[in-house]
Automatic annotation (TrEMBL):
Alphabetized InterPro entries for the sequence: GntR_C (IPR011711), TF_FadR/GntR_C (IPR008920), Tscrpt_reg_HTH_GntR (IPR000524), WH-like_DNA-bd_sf (IPR036388), WH_DNA-bd_sf (IPR036390)
Domain of life: Bacteria
Protein name, UniProt field: HTH gntR-type domain-containing protein
A Pfam family recorded for this sequence: FCD
PROSITE patterns: HTH_GNTR
Length: 191
């Protein structure tokens, strides 16, 4: 309380929040302890954001990439099979923004919307929140990848292949195109 200049009430609330996020545990006569990292709830937006700021950057980028490689190709296939007019229009708008991007910032915003729109278009309400979960960390990864490329929009052709396969309702092609796009991303992370 002295270190941060806060009241006992603020301290209790902070400890309650950290407990609910799985970071600490508090027991009578034992005290408050930090839980081991494997017990943390990394599927909490705040915890994931905090962790991404202190984790070794390359290791974290590869872990996020592994998760994307497991989920996004399948989500693209689902999007191809089940997108609605509204969800496809959102994807088309994101793709158009990517095509029209004039700088890294515009590209990254459009790229992020593109990937979030793919998750929304898959019409699986359990996958859609993953976009919200990883949005901040994904944005940072997309920005880094755009800066590592020769030109910020170097992966436009790969995104267009995903977009066209979803538009054409070709689920196998959408899965393959997304896997190819993520392969390019992995190459930039590792390169």
């Amino acid at each position: 309380m002295d270190t941060f200049g806060v009241s006992r009430t603020v301290l209790r609330e902070a400890l309650r929040t950290l407990t609910s996020k799985g970071l600490i545990e508090s027991r009578p006569r034992v005290g408050t302890r930090v839980r081991p990292k494997h017990a943390w709830n990394l599927l909490d937006v705040d915890v994931l954001d905090w962790y991404s700021r202190v984790a070794e950057p390359m290791a974290f980028a590869l872990k996020l990439q592994e998760m994307r490689e497991m989920i996004e190709p399948y989500a693209a296939g689902l999007a191809a099979a089940s997108h609605t007019g509204d969800t496809f229009n959102a994807l088309a708008a994101a793709h158009a923004s990517m095509v029209g991007a004039r700088n890294v910032d515009e590209w990254v915003r459009a790229d992020l919307q593109f990937h979030l729109s793919v998750l929304t278009a898959c019409s699986n309400e359990l996958l859609i929140p993953l976009g919200t979960l990883i949005e901040r960390t994904l944005e940072a990864q997309l920005r880094l990848n755009a800066k590592r490329a020769d030109v910020f929009n170097a992966s436009l052709a790969e995104h267009t292949a995903v977009f066209e396969a979803i538009r054409d309702r070709d689920a196998p092609a959408a899965r393959e195109a997304m896997a190819g796009l993520l392969g390019v991303t992995r190459g930039r992370i590792e390169g």
